Amino acid sequence: MLLHxxxxxxxxxxxxxxxxxxxxxxxxxxxxKGDVDDMLSSQLxxxxxxxxxxxxxxxxxxxxxxxxxxxxxxxxxxxxxxVAVEREQSATRARMARASDAYLRERLHDLDDLSxxxxxxxxxxxxxxxxxxxxxxxxxxxNIGPGELLEYGKKIKGIVLEEGSVGSHATIVAxxxxxxxxxxADKITREALNGDLLLVDxxxxxxxxxxxxxxxxAFRDKIEMQAAAQEKYRSIRxxxxxxxxxxxxxxNMNAGLMVDLPSLESSGADGVGLFRTELQFLMRSTVxxxxxLAALYDSIMNSxxxxxxxxxxxxxxxxxxxxxMKREDEPNPAMGWRAIRLAxxxxxxxxxxxxxxxxxxxxxxxKIMFPFVAQFEEFTDARTRVLHELDRxxxxxxxxxxxxxxxxxxxxxSLAFAPDQFFEMADFISIGxxxxxxxxxxxxxxxxRVRRRYDTLNVSFLSFxxxxxKRCDDLGTPVSxxxxxxxxxxxxxxxxxxxxxxLSMRPASIGPVKHLLRRANLNEARAxxxxxxxxxxxxxxxxxxxxxxxx
Length: 551
Ligand code: PEP
Ligand code: MG
Prior knowledge:
TIM Barrel; single chain; binds magnesium ion
């Protein structure tokens, strides 16, 4: 285990000569910019547009005049260069603590990361080059920047962060490099010492510092068991998810980055049931150009080799603010001006995205899905715009897709009760269980205190899923479930028992979900659920688990 950010000690906080301090700051800044440029042109970035965009956003900060002039101001007030950097860093950290917007927090973290580099350059302390790092180390840090992570590269076997977030640049890079990452490890930088033994379970998000022998050996057993399970999943990779009573469930995967696509083949997924397009937008400092997006969507379709992909249009809103969009302060962003609401009101970006999708398809079939539709009219409106863009593209001489399907995400309870005409018009529906569940139980999906209070296998929620599934069947609308719960084997089995025949999940979940489905009889599962429901249970989990043990 290795501490990423050793404490820097500043010996002399005041400076006599401002000119010297200013020159030191400029020199360090030039080196820093050079380092970032080197990273950008390095092997690590070659071939990966995503790494490149992450670093470009990072470079934008390094070149920010505001940042430089605030530090120069510190020097003018008599501070040594490193103290001026530190003072500005403290101000950034205070802004970071106050920022309620996740995207802004992430960008401020990039700035924090650059300040650390600058401090190391100015003091000559804590300089650790990637070459000095022992192979197979686990890095521990308060937080880490994407640049540093790329420098450590494949040499490291895990990362444990005190802060961090699911949508951060570092998380994206770690995922792309398949390095296990644990975030929110409380006090880890204070507790851990260089050289300590540290076990990292990226799947569970757990790290064990200086584990007891019993924990370490249980961990070893778990790794062995997982290896055996992986072997089992590999053996059924090309087999269908057919239950004992002959029901075949389509298992798709969720994706959001080009790097996710190879999992389509390795996981045995039938297609991509949800491609979250916003990640490409969130990672950049400027709005992507239509041509760039079209090229990206084209490579995604090429990598899928004919397997279907459902592209979800931008799900952006007050909680996921793009740096090039004016921020709207809203008291309750999750229920605010987001996703399709924003897209319909400010249609420029959506139109551009639709054009990019149509051009990328270049005659191939295209599936487009709108997020967060709450009423029929929003869907008809969005659909009309797709049809309009198709006409326009055709009149401009572009080849338009042979087959275009336009679907909606069912993420608000209201849509389940929309008129029949909605279900007849939608080419498909995908239940966004993450949002649907938070609105069904009125429990914030980001709030740990309330999130776990309501079980997905709660009878009310399952009955709701059953109703939606039945309504779609009656009206002939293909329906799928693409929230995180679809990737949990027991939940997936219960959804199938409630009538769903298509699920979309993280690629790593395909094997475990398929394995359970192939061992189960859906009629029996349904009987167990109905019995628990008739007995007035709050959740069917206990009954279903007990039954699964008998399989
Ligand atoms: C969902 O809400 O279930 C969903 C898949 O969308 P997201 O998690 O991106 O909001
Ligand atoms: Mg959602």
